[in-house]
């Protein structure tokens, strides 16, 4: 199987999760982090899901799944240990040309979910195309050690600089060489060392004296 890698914008889109156990709960949390409007259908539900429902963050329907639960949904994720139910959700979604993921059942999916490393706006996706989720998990853990929280701050800084440069009405292509210079100056390590003075020196050299690390970071808060 060859998959087409893609990042979906699911902000405010209706997404269904069938299953309220540990796996289903993890799927719900990830969907919420990406801004989805989440409905969960499950007779049983974890404490976390109950709290999310109580606070109004999700809609929880504590009953068996029916085909009409897919009405108006953008995608569905099924996370149960009931093979018959998993297959039924897959068939129903396929009939509606809907995005469908069945946890740990790549043959019943039309998309699979990679292992993720998240550092703010930096998202690194690791996929073995369903061949070995355990190896994908191992790679994710290795990458988490390599890419620490300083990368999140680095992207905040790059975003603030880009926004400021674009405000001067220049075309984005004109800024490419500036970002290449900044990336080559190992600012990530300086952020890790909390060396704002050295970062300011680099920003002044490449961009001009008006660019200051702490000020730019505040702009992104």
Explain how this protein is built:
This protein has a 5-stranded parallel β-sheet, with helices on both faces. A two-stranded antiparallel ribbon has the order 6-7. The protein has 3 domains: 14-113, Rossmann fold, CATH 3.40.50; 114-146; 150-219. It has 221 residues and is an alpha/beta fold. It starts with 13 loop residues before the first strand and ends with a helix. The protein has helices spanning 22-33, 47-54, 83-95, 133-146, 150-166, 176-183, 187-192, 196-206, 213-219, and strands at 14-18, 37-41, 58-61, 75-78, 99-102, 115-119, 122-126. The protein is 43% helix and 14% strand. The radius of gyration is 22 Å and the shape is elongated. Helix 5 packs across helix 9 (213-219).
Protein traits:
single chain; 221 residues; alpha/beta; Rossmann fold; two-stranded antiparallel ribbon; 9 helices; 14% strand; elongated
Which strand order do you get reading across the main beta sheet?
Answer: 3-2-1-4-5
The residue fraction in helices comes out at 40-55%
CATH class of the largest domain, please?
Answer: Alpha Beta
CATH architecture of the largest domain: 3-Layer(aba) Sandwich
How would a crystallographer describe the biggest sheet?
A: 5 strands, parallel
Number of helices: 9
> CATH fold name of the largest domain, please?
Rossmann fold
């Amino acid at each position: 199987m060859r998959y087409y890698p893609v990042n979906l914008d699911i902000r405010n889109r209706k997404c269904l999760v069938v299953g309220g156990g540990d796996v289903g709960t993890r799927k719900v949390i990830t969907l919420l982090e990406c801004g989805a409007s989440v409905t969960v259908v499950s007779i049983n539900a974890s404490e976390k899901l109950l709290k999310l429902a109580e606070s109004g963050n999700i809609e929880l329907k504590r009953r068996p799944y029916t085909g009409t639960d897919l009405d108006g949904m953008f995608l569905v994720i099924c996370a149960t240990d009931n093979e018959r139910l998993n297959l039924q959700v897959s068939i129903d979604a396929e009939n509606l040309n809907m995005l469908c993921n069945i946890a740990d059942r790549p043959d019943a999916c039309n998309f699979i979910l990679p292992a993720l490393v998240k550092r703010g706006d930096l998202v690194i996706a690791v996929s073995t195309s369903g061949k070995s989720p355990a190896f994908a998990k191992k790679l994710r853990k290795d990458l988490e050690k390599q890419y620490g929280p300083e990368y999140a701050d680095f992207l905040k800084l790059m975003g603030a600089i880009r926004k400021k440069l674009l405000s001067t009405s220049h075309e984005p292509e004109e800024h490419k060489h500036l970002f290449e210079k900044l990336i080559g100056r190992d600012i990530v390590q300086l952020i890790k060392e909390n060396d704002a003075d050295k970062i300011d020196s680099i920003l002044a050299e490449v961009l001009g004296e008006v660019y200051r690390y702490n000020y730019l970071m505040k702009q992104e808060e």
